[in-house]
Design a protein that fits this description.
Blueprint: H1 3-8, H2 10-15, E1 43-47, E2 50-53, H3 54-72, E3 80-81, E4 84-85, H4 86-110, H5 117-133, H6 136-142, H7 146-166, H8 176-179, E5 182-190, E6 192-194, E7 200-202, H9 205-223, H10 228-235, E8 242-245, H11 252-259, E9 270-271, E10 275-283, H12 287-314, E11 319-321, H13 323-328, H14 342-361
Length: 362
């Protein structure tokens, strides 16, 4: 999916795990209580004292639906994703995201974190801009007015503020060695076959020996200065011939052998979980990619710090899902309902404000 779509979910939602708090996807963390009675008719779920109404949920769901359709077309919903219905997956994803926002607002309240007057003004401006962008059909289908939109933006902004507050002091020093990316080429000889179900079946000892002997023969050719790319094309059983990666991203055996090579060096035959490899190092260091990796590693560390705080708070909460209403919620199928820019408007206003503040400081 295009980068704009992921960006629109903001750094907060990209960094947080996409686990549904009600046990509908992945694993559930903390207390779980599912009720089908005692809810208001448009109350989708309740977390402690905080609730999510149907109009709030539909803003999230419909914007996500239309973002996907803008990239892939409406026919995307006719396809399955890894055996699961994509509509169902997006619906659960929307539930997980808005539930996380609700949890974070409760945590912000516990820590006495609130929006400033300036942030409230930005929220009001975002709500006006988004509500104005909706046509009458969209307003009716979503059952929203400007106050509802403002409330959603307030919670969204407060959750982002909480995240940045918790990770504000996380700024670890990352060395070049920890962050560096290397680039290698390889020739793979698989040590398994596939059965009718597509499952891996290990080769017998005798079969593995034949594969290993073939790998040794090709390694000798590689060491004798035969063009490595030709050997990849002729012998490799991997569709990918070149990999760029940093530490912790590949099979440990493959990674260890790769990082021990210098530019242009070729490894002995090594075995990973996928089979036997002959590896040639193309580059041991890429300055630009290393700098990008440092940023990525810092964000990973921030995520770890935040998730520890978040998870500790999450287990203290009681979550209640209105199962009857949840089962009835479906996508809006109306060609006049095309709204997609709820998150975009937030990003534009708050990022512009942050840029202006930075320029004033400088």
């Amino acid at each position: 999916m295009q980068s704009k779509l992921s960006k629109n979910m903001t750094v907060l939602l990209v960094l947080l795990c996409g686990v549904c708090l009600f046990g509908c996807a992945g694993h559930d963390t903390g207390k779980k209580v599912v009720f089908t009675t005692g809810f208001a008719k448009d109350e989708v779920f309740r977390i402690n004292k905080d609730s999510c109404t149907l109009p709030e949920f539909m803003v999230y769901l419909t914007n996500m639906q239309n973002q996907y359709e803008r990239v892939y077309g409406s026919e995307i919903w006719q396809k399955d994703l890894a055996g699961a219905n994509l509509k169902h997956s997006i619906k659960e994803n929307a539930l997980a995201r808005i539930a996380q926002i609700k949890v974070m607002n409760l945590l912000a309240e516990q820590r006495s974190i609130s929006l400033t007057v300036q942030e409230q003004d930005l929220v009001k401006k975002a709500a006006q801009q988004y509500y104005t962008s909706l046509n009458e059909t969209e307003r009716g289908s979503l059952s929203v007015d400007e106050d509802v939109i403002r409330g959603i933006y307030e919670e969204y902004a407060l959750a982002n503020k909480l995240y940045h507050y918790i990770i504000k002091d996380v700024n670890p020093e990352i060395s070049d060695d920890e962050a560096r990316t290397i680039t290698v080429q390889h020739i793979l000889f698989k040590n398994y076959s596939l059965n009718g179900k597509g499952e891996r079946v290990p080769l017998s000892k005798a079969e593995k020996q034949k594969v290993y002997d073939r790998a040794l023969a090709v390694e000798k050719m590689a060491q004798s200065n035969i063009v490595f790319e030709q050997l990849i094309e002729q012998y490799s059983e991997d569709k990918i011939g070149t990999y760029s990666f940093r530490q912790g991203e590949m099979d440990p055996a493959f990674e260890k052998a790769s990082f021990e090579l210098g530019n242009g060096e070729i490894s002995d035959v090594i075995e990973s979980q996928s089979g036997y490899h002959i590896i040639k190092c193309i580059s041991t260091f890429d300055r630009d990619q290393t700098d990008l990796n440092k940023v990525k590693i810092v964000e990973e560390r921030k995520k770890e710090v935040f998730n520890q705080v978040y998870d500790e708070f999450l287990v203290t909460l009681v979550k209640q899902l209105n199962q009857n209403l949840w089962d009835k919620i479906t996508f809006i199928q109306d060609e006049r309902v095309t709204t997609y820019n709820f998150f975009e408007i937030y990003e534009q206003l708050f990022e512009t404000n942050q840029t202006n503040q930075t320029n004033q400081t400088n």
